[in-house]
Every structure is written in C-alpha cells, then in structure tokens.
Amino acid sequence: MNRPLIPMIDKAIKIIEESNNIYIASHVQPDGDSIGSILALGMAIKKVKKEVNIIKVDDIPVDYSFLPKLEIIREYDVENNIDIFISLDSSDLDRLGIGKQFALKANKVINLDHHITNGNFGDINIVSSSSAATGEIVYEFIKRMEIKIDRDMATCLYTAISTDTGSFMYCNTTYKTHLIAAELLKLGIDKDYINRRLYQSKSIERVNLFISSLNKLEYFLDGKIGITVVTQDMLKDNNAKLEDTEGVISFIRDIDSIEVACLLKEINDKETKISMRSKKYVDVSAICDRFNGGGHKRAAGCTIYNKIDIAKELILKEIKNSF
Ligand code: AMP
Ligand code: MN
Ligand code: MN
Prior knowledge:
By secondary structure, the chain is α/β, with parallel strands linked by helices. The chain has helices spanning 6-17, 32-46, 99-105, 134-144, 151-164, 175-186, 191-199, 204-214, 232-237, 248-253, 284-289, 308-321; strands at residues 22-26, 52-55, 73-74, 82-88, 106-113, 124-127, 218-220, 225-230, 260-268, 271-278, 294-295, 299-304. Helix content is 38%, strand content 20%.
C-alpha cells in the first residue's frame, strides 16, 4: 500500500459511502490506463452504489474494444446535483473534455492520478507520481474499500498497468508494479489473450501508417533527437485513424542514439498534438509544460495551436534547448 496516500484514500472512500450520485471520467484521447482505470473503479463502486455513471469523453480506440463492461461508459447530459466527480489519470480539468463540466457542477471532486504535472485540482487529491499507472492507485483504492476484485476488474487493471509501463519495461515500473501484476494474475485473468489483443493485433492500415511516418523521420543533434509527423493526408492515404499512430513514438525512442523522440500529429491546420518520449535524462514533461501540456519525465504531451510545420519548429527549438 502506498502509505502517504492512505489518509486521502480513506477520506475519498468515506464521502463515496455518503453519496448517491457519482460520476467518473478520464482524459480525452483515452489510453489503456485511463479506460482500464475508469472501468475497474466504476465496477468496484457499482458493487456498493447504484448511482455510478462513467462518462464517455471521447471515442474508445479499437485496441481496447476487448475490455469487459465497456458498455457502462456512456454519454450523459450534465446535471445539477452531482455529489461526487472522480477524475482518473488526468493532470488537469481541461484534459477531461466534457468531463470538466461535470467536475464544475459536483459538490466534491476526487482527483486520482499519477502525472508529475498534476495541479491538485480536486477537493481530495490522491496523486502519486511514483506510481507507474493510475491503475496501480485504483488497485490500492479498491483493496482499501475492501471490495473483492473480480476477473473483469483485474483484466481492466492489468491492461491499465501493462499499457502505461510498455509491458513492464519502462523505467516507471517498480517492484510494486510487479507485485500488483502478480496479484492480478492470481485472480485468473487471461494474460495471453490480453497481450494478444493489446500488442499483436495491429491492422494493416496501422502498419502502413507506421511505415509512412518512419519515412519522414528526421534526426537532429547527432541523432539524439528523432522527430516525425503524421498528417491528415497520411491518414487518408493509408485509410488510418489518429489512434493508429500508437507504436510510432516508442519505436523512435528505441533507436540506439535517441534521447528524445517526438511525434507531431496534425489535427487540422490550426492544431497539432505532440507526443514526446525520452530515454535517460531529458525531462520531456518540463518541455510540454511550456506549451500547457504535461505528463511524466519520460513520456509527455501537449497541443500547439498552430499548423504542423510551425509547431515542429517551435517544439524542436525547445527540445534542443533542453540538452
Ligand atoms: P501521449 O503522448 O499522448 O501518449 O501522452 C504521454 C503522456 O503525457 C501521458 O501520460 C499523457 O497523459 C500525458 N499528456 C499527453 N498530452 C497531454 C496534455 N495535453 N496535457 C497533459 N498531459 C498530457
Ligand atoms: Mn493516460
Ligand atoms: Mn496513466
């Protein structure tokens, strides 16, 4: 158990027990950690409370379509008497998309997250940047609630933790990560099926987009920086979606000389989404923070409201300055 978090977790459990109308949401452009976490916590609270609503803030990538109970993630209209809003895996309110409206209407906001850039925007903040995934904190939360973790919840938590740790490889992985994963395996999850669905089910379209994106890879600073793009034209040419960029950036970081990998995704001619990864020493969350984004030291992101060529110049300058 993450000891410093216990008083906050207990406080949150108490107000959950006293409440009836609870909403849960996570960040836009959802990943395995955010979806796995909202499903697991949603299922857990549903065991003791009827009124738990999990808000769909964005489309769910096909990668996670195998997760159990996905149908409990639904669109809702904002209402007035919300007892509690629980934000999972989101470093700030703006990243919640429509979820922000629910947070603003709620009597109490519980902010449960692991981003180093989290602004403690909740009434109760359960934030631990040493946790590899929000799913790890949710696991501890459910244990503390004394709710039995079933196979479906375990599948969601394993997905959350596996995806945010790059299958237990990234440097955020700790002995606790492995202990929690071991407990989840003990609950009888089908890890081979989960791994196949998460890592061995790429569509041909995704592979083609990967190839065309790598064809545009450019190196700077003696190969320490690798930067590439995915434009709307590239998506169209390959019949791919934005979620199909998954895998490009980690491949670039895996190159021997690379310290910082950067992927620019063209949303439209006024908006560019940026993903960044580092290997050993550059703090990419600090770079993204300068553009109102955030994340972790070795994985971060931001949005630059400009066209992709300009965004590239702006971010490249900041990356070079960080060496
Ligand atoms: P991504 O490159 O989108 O996979 O994001 C890498 C990490 O940075 C994840 O932990 C994200 O939650 C975080 N992140 C991405 N974009 C933003 C943003 N605009 N603001 C704050 N954190 C972000
Ligand atoms: Mn996330
Ligand atoms: Mn996360």
